[in-house]
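can u pls check wat happens w/ uridine-5'-diphosphate
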Amino acid sequence: MTKKYNRILLKLSGESLMGKAQYGIDPERLAEYAQQIKEMADLGIQIAIVIGGGNIFRGLSGATKGFERVKGDQMGMLATVINSLALCSALESIGAKARVLTGVRMEPIGEYFSKTRALECLNNGEIVIFSCGTGCPYFTTDTGSSLRGIEIEADVMLKGTRVDGIYTADPEKDPTAVKFDDITYDEIYVKGLKVMDLTATTMCKENNLPIIVFNMDKPGNLKKVLTEGGIGTLVHN
Ligand code: UDP
């Protein structure tokens, strides 16, 4: 099996970790992800991961319930740390080498992120999980993922979702929606497609980081994207 990429940044949403639950982490879903990720690391692909925190807390929805926004965002960032530790533990339990780096200082939970340290770990064959998104409030983990992907000079950013790509409309609501095999960042702006927030999309556009949006919940899909291609939607300049 030949790999198409040497170094990738995989973005997983916090919600995807819930599986069928309404909140928190589903151990089965976590184990499934860990297995798929380990298999790809075993192929020699350098894998960095950013996980969201929406299955636990989101600053913006906290603000509507009376939480002060910056504190709410900090709570959200801490939620990403919980998810990152869970995935790291699931990876280690199946014999993968994995490590959590944090965007906010919190040793001994994880080392503070730096590009140098991240590359050292990746070159050492470790799966590296970047927690806390960007480390700053008012951002999302999609933006954290674009930022880290660009910093570590990833070949591509993979955005694992529960649909199999980008559609003309929400396929869960509109049965006439049609999937794009590929699309430019500019078309995303013009068509107003909700792929990622604009800050994240703009960072990828300006720094030429291609994105592949695909369905991560179908076992085997991660492998297909990384070895065969032909699934999901490719976003490019
Ligand atoms: N967050 C933040 N700065 C970042 C990334 C995340 O403040 O750089 C906070 C923000 O409150 C966000 C929460 O962490 O709502 C969880 O992240 P996100 O909503 O991106 O998670 P996802 O939707 O991917 O599960």
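The chain has a mean pLDDT of 96.
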